[in-house]
Amino acid sequence: MEFGIEVFGFIAAVFIGFFLGLLGGGGSVLAVPVLVYLFHIKVAPAITFSLLIVGLASAFGSIHYFKEKLIDPKKALYFGLPSILTVSLTRWFIVPNLPESITITNSFALSQRQYLLLIFAILMMLSAIKMIRKSATSTHQNSSPEFPLLALYGVGVGFITGFIGVGGGFLIVPALYAFGKMTMKEAIGTSLVVIALNSLIGFSTSIVQDSQNDGISIGLIFSILAFSALGVLIGNLISKRIQSEKLKPLFGWFILLMGAFILGKEFL
Asked: pLDDT per residue over 255-267, tens digit each?
């Protein structure tokens, strides 16, 4: 591995943690591209180890919000339990049975790497558009939480986390804000708890049965995690001084460009 690319990879790892700590999500969509393109790890194990990195970084980031009493355990439970169950089922039954290639026409087929990255890039671009668009101000302080919708949304996020290897914070935060009737700060803190549980359960399920992870340097993974943890600290500090909503559109444009880069690199 070239030294310059490795350094750039560790800088990118800082941003993974930074956006997790600041926005309660978003940074996880960087993890797979960083592992694949900067550290040259194959897509399947990159998805698996991204779950470990994102899970531990999110758990670390949630400590700050726990101390500030910005985590709602009850809503995390309503959202998290269906999500965790779906992550486990997805990683145990669906992911190991993914085909090595998908035939589109007689003369065109997508390899597993290509169709996984295609789905990942589309998800990145959709989440980017959501971040770029300005959210309408909601006044729900006196409304009751919609727990059935939280649970249903949790199932959807669990599938995405298990299948693609993203924490889903860019989906969790809006759901907790809208259906859980939480403040933005509470939604971010609670999102980190759900991301941590989802990601670590998904990683644990995969590592038990996955033989594709042989040869991955555990030292490298934990080095990336250390830089991500540094990013989380920076994100937590900045969250005290700036509204996360102000940075979302800028990060959204960055994610949109990343998604376009993946599509261009894999299919052009």
From this structure: 888 889 889 988 8
Q: Does residue 169 surpass a pLDDT of 80? A: no
| CA–CA distances in Å: residue 173 to residues 18, 61, 184, 243 | 16, 15, 8, 14
CA separation, residue 139 to residues 10, 132, 154, 188, 260 (Å): 40, 21, 23, 18, 35
Burial string for 198-234 (b: 16+ CB within 10 Å, else e) reads: bbbbbbebbeeebeebeebeeebbebbbbbbbbbbbb
Distance CA 58, CA 24 (A): 8
Residue 70 CB neighbour total at 10 angstroms: 20
pTM over 0.85: no
Side-chain half-sphere of 57: how many Cα atoms within 13 Å?
A: 41
